[in-house]
Amino acid sequence: EGLAILTPFWMDYVLNESTEAKFAEYGRNVWNLSGDDATVAKAAIQCTRDFFKKLGLPVTLTDVGIDETHFDEMAEKAAKGLENAYVPLTAADVKAIFKAAL
Q1: Do 68 and 99 touch, CB atoms closer than 8 A?
Q2: What share of the chain is helix, strand, coil (3-state, %, to 5)?
Q3: What is the pLDDT of residue 89?
Q4: 67 neighbors 102 (Cβ within 8 angstroms)
Q5: For the chain (length 102 residues), average pLDDT per consecutive 10?
Q6: Is residue 45 packed enough to be buried (19+ CB in 10 Å), middle (13-18) or exposed (0-12)?
Q7: Which residue in 8, 19, 49, 89 has the fewest CB atoms around it within 10 Å?
Q8: Predicted pLDDT at 81
Q9: Distance between CA atoms of 15 and 4, rounded to whole angstroms?
C-alpha cells in the first residue's frame, strides 16, 4: 500500500527535463503510450496512479490514517541512503512528497 500511495507522488516530484525520457520510456513500454517525452511521462504517472486505484489500493496517506504528525521523523529515516538514488532526495524532499500524498 505504501508503494501504491507514494510512487506516483514520487514520480511527480522527480519529473523534470532530465528524468522525463526515463519516465516516457516506462510509459511506452508498460502502458503502450505514444507521443513526445513530456506528454508520455506525465500520462505514465497518471496511468500508474489509475492502475493502483483500479486495484482498490489506497491512493493517499490520509486513506490509511496517516497525517503530518510524524512527517519530520519519517522523512529523516526515509532519506537515509537516498543521496545516491536515481534522483537524490533529502529529508526535505521526502517530506514534500509525503505532504503531496496527503
Answers
A1: yes
A2: 70, 0, 30
A3: 97
A4: yes
A5: 97 98 98 98 98 97 97 96 94 98 98
A6: buried
A7: 19
A8: 87
A9: 17
